[in-house]
Amino acid sequence: MRIVVAGGDGFCGWPTALYLSKQGHEVSILDNLVRRKIDEELRSNSVTPIATLEERVTKWKELTGNDIQIFIGDLNHYDFLSQVFEQTKPDAFVHFGEQRSAPYSMIDREHAIYTQTNNVMGNLNVLYAIKELAPDCHLIKLGTMGEYGTPNIDIEEGYLEVEHNGRKDTVPFPKQPGSFYHLSKVHDSHNIMFACKAWGIRATDLNQGVVYGLHTEETELDPILNNRLDYDGVYGTALNRFLIQAVTGHDLTVYGSGSQTRAFLNIKDTIRCVEIAVNNPADNGEFRVFNQFTEYFTVQELAEKVKNVAGQLNLETNIAHIENPRVETEEHYYHAVNTKLKSLGLEPNLLTDQVLKEILETVVEHKDRVIKDNVLPTISWK
Fold first, then answer.
1. Active-site residue identified among 185, 268, 305, 340
2. CA–CA dist 239, 297 (Å, integer)
3. Superfamily of segment(s) 2-374
């Protein structure tokens, strides 16, 4: 199958591209390399050293014999995107190619506008490219569980059956996003749903939880194939922040009460979920939603897990609570449905002590790369 992975140089896109290539698909990576430029803007870095995209792809070819074609350019440039579609004639378009940080989108007006313009307009261009150049192409779009927010009811997979004034209907699940980034994902979902209805496009929206983990079988083949490990207050997840703090002797800083609950999944499950979507495409005109996660935790639970595993490695840590820079409900109900991917064969990799140990050992190996001033939050929602 011919597959384009947009954002294939990133944390989720890179291991996905390698995995799909290993499965025998004809994979192309489309990326504008902006994530690397944002590292320069933020004066930050990945804990793991990251080779250039060209070096990565060359090493993959050397190790496996598999070619991955590279297209360097922006989804917001439709002439460029059209050329990619004309050259690759994709059967599936895996869309990771968006600004993915909630804190980054909340820095100021310019960053909010950039996030929404980049994400929403780029996604619209992809929809038009499919309509005009590859109408049978299956769009596999990375959404986020953050589109839903934290409603006081169970979170269904994309849709909700409601009864109002004696009548029933199935409607898109109400969205309560918590940042301009999450709002951009909501706009994407609405635009994709409309394009499916109006043009008969086939699409799968993968509402993904927070991704943890680092290594996959493919990225472990050689250091040149390393995946990113972000830790700063802008792009690093809470779990990554705790892991870095454990290694550098800093308190594990929990925002607010630590009762905030979020959905999570291993990076190995991210690539498997994409493969499941590729192998089981939506029907023409269908806008299908999968909740892509395997378990959920509170922030406090994550900190306690890291503290426990760090202790096993003789790293002494303390948990400290700091003022929450985000505007979010800290005490809330959270229960989400995630049955569709499991019914199609997903066998979850769970957050075990061994997974945390492997990441901690990688951080220890590269701890000199950690810029300690970048770990704590500097961006406020208020």
1. 185
2. 11
3. NAD(P)-binding Rossmann-like Domain (3.40.50.720)
